[in-house]
Amino acid sequence: MARSTGSRLTVVYDVLFSEYGPRDWWPAETPFEVAVGAILTQNTAWGNVEKAIVNLKSRGFLEPDAMRNASERVIAGLIRPSGYFNLKSKKLKSFMDFLYDEFGGSMESMKRERTGKLRQRLLSVWGLGPETVDSILLYALEKPSFVVDAYTRRMFQRIGFLEGSEGYGEIKSLFEEKLPKDVQLFNEYHALIVEHCKRMCLKNKPKCNECCLKMRCAHAKSSV
DNA sequence: GCCCAGGTGGGTA
DNA sequence: TACCCACATGGG
Asked: What is the pTM of this model?
């Protein structure tokens, strides 16, 4: 008898976990730092985000009050290495407005709000799309909200769980409905997917080979 | 020099 | 709704 989707998802998780072990995500010191990182990493390699984080931290801007009071131009200058710096500086500002207007600048206070309601409110903030919002919910606020990203789409399309045309919400629901609603599980699962996809690409540099997960890879349909 | 990276918003048909 | 495109730096 064929395995259920839920147990197949669990098998994939077990394989990844046994291969890579616990990922200990998100790489940040505070919930606020997670939220900032989630915005900065939009369509950007994490290595570049780290440089921006270091810049912000060294100037003392990686805490709510300081960032709230900083000008958009100053923040833009510091986050330059993460790319799209003018855009991201506006997005940070827009998140700060939300954090202060709705929760008095407190991530702890934000955490007390019910997950579904909070997700809707965060999605209404300019500059925060579904992936960024779910990253904040899961990694900063420890809410059981599964994060779907480009890696998730590619990998699960490759192994036949996805057809390719599914929307963000559909993929998110697949994981959330078929897996136990567990913060630690969701945390590890997404982190393991990212780790696996990164390693599969790194492994084959400089020439993309059969393990590469990049969509344009000629071998993209042949292996995980 | 080219491709890509842990997306999102805005415009157009 | 479904595509395009802009946004931008840094590594391979």
From this structure: 0.93
